[in-house]
Structure formats: structure tokens, C-alpha cells
Automatic annotation (TrEMBL):
Entry protein name: ATP-dependent zinc metalloprotease FTSH 7, chloroplastic
One GO-annotated biological process of the protein: proteolysis
Annotated ranges, domain Peptidase M41: 1-161
Gene Ontology MF term list: ATP binding; ATP-dependent peptidase activity; metalloendopeptidase activity
GO cellular component: chloroplast thylakoid membrane
Listed InterPro entries: Peptidase_M41 (IPR000642), Peptidase_M41-like (IPR037219)
Key words, A-Z: Hydrolase, Metalloprotease, Protease
The keyword Protease belongs to this UniProt entry's keyword annotation: yes
Top-rank taxon: Eukaryota
């Protein structure tokens, strides 16, 4: 479901992703990356439409994307630079909360800074990819935007028909697949 109806919590638009038909407790790296691109799609569309100008409209999506990226890097161990560790477990003194190690005390500031850097890099890469998707699909963006202005929402089979028209740029495939088992940022420059 896609809507431009205002919602509570600061969201001016709304994208609903229904749960899969099966019970899922796992989120694979490629799914996580795809969700980040989706969450930042509204900001990317706004940036594209308004020639680089952005507003506060994507607040809720940015919050959700930041939370997801942080958990990927700092809790799920899905970042190659940070490695397979849980920052929350380290800062809490371990699984048994016995007080932590002196090594953690010396390295805490550096690791927190590194986590923030990696989260920002991951989010920027996802936004860059979302911009690539938007740029590759101006007709869909314009048509869907006009449809939403008139009808205020699109869902189900009607939304699926719009999504069939979307061209996935190579950057999207590269970012989603990434390097096996890691969340490496997309390199966008030469």
C-alpha cells in the first residue's frame, strides 16, 4: 500500500509493507539492504523532483532506516569493518552483565565513533541507490505521483502494475547483493 494521506507520528506519506506469508524471525542482508533503499525512496524522490531541495517530510522513514542500519552494524554483526559483534552486549558488560572488560573501557569511544561512521556510510549508500532508481524511472515517478494526487492511495494489484514498470538500475542490484555476508557501502565515485 502506498499513500499520501497524512499519518500520526509526523509521516505525511505512508508505505506499508505487508508481512510475508510465513513466520519470519530472520532478515537476510540482501533483504535489509533492499528495505533501506525502499525507506529512503521518498527522500530520493523529493530530492530528484525539487532539484536537490529536501524537506522534513521523510522524517519517519529516515528514523526507521537509521534504526535498521544501526542494528545491522552494531547489533547484528553485519558490517565487515566492525565485525561480528554486538555493541549492546559489550557496553552492558557481556551476556551475564558481569561488568565488562578493561579493553572495552579503552576502546569504547573509538568503536562508537566507528559504528556511527559505518551507519552513516550505509545510509548514504542506500540513499544514493534510491536516487539511481528514481532517476532511472522518471515516467513511473511522474505517473504514480499524479495518480496519488488524484486518488491519495494505491495498493494491491494496482500497485503491482505500477511496480512492474520500474527499471532496476545496476546500482540497485550491486548494492543489494553487496559482498557476501557484509554490508559494504556502495562506491559511487571514480
Amino acid at each position: 500500500k502506498l499513500s499520501i494521506l497524512p499519518r500520526s507520528g509526523g509521516a505525511l506519506g505512508f508505505t506499508y509493507t505487508p508481512p510475508t506469508s510465513e513466520d519470519r524471525y530472520l532478515l537476510f542482508v540482501d533483504e535489509l539492504r533492499g528495505r533501506l533503499v525502499t525507506l529512503l525512496g521518498g527522500r530520493a524522490a523529493e530530492e530528484f523532483i525539487y532539484s536537490g531541495r529536501v524537506s522534513t517530510g521523510a522524517l519517519d522513514d529516515i528514523r526507521r532506516a537509521t534504526d535498521m542500519a544501526y542494528k545491522a552494524v552494531a547489533e547484528y554483526g553485519l558490517n565487515e569493518t566492525i565485525g561480528p559483534l554486538s555493541l549492546a552486549t559489550l557496553s552492558g558488560g557481556g551476556m551475564d552483565e558481569s561488568g565488562g572488560s578493561s579493553l572495552w573501557g579503552r576502546e569504547q569511544g573509538h568503536l562508537v565513533d566507528l559504528v556511527q561512521k559505518e551507519v552513516k556510510s550505509l545510509l548514504q549508500s542506500a540513499l544514493d541507490v534510491a536516487l539511481s532508481v528514481v532517476r532511472a524511472n522518471p515516467t513511473v515517478l511522474e505517473g504514480l505521483g499524479a495518480h496519488l494526487e488524484e486518488k491519495e492511495k494505491v495498493e494491491g494489484e494496482e500497485l503491482q502494475e505500477w511496480l512492474k514498470l520500474v527499471v532496476a538500475p545496476a546500482e540497485l542490484t550491486f548494492f543489494i547483493r553487496g559482498k557476501q555476508g557484509s554490508l559494504l557501502p556502495l562506491q559511487t565515485g571514480p
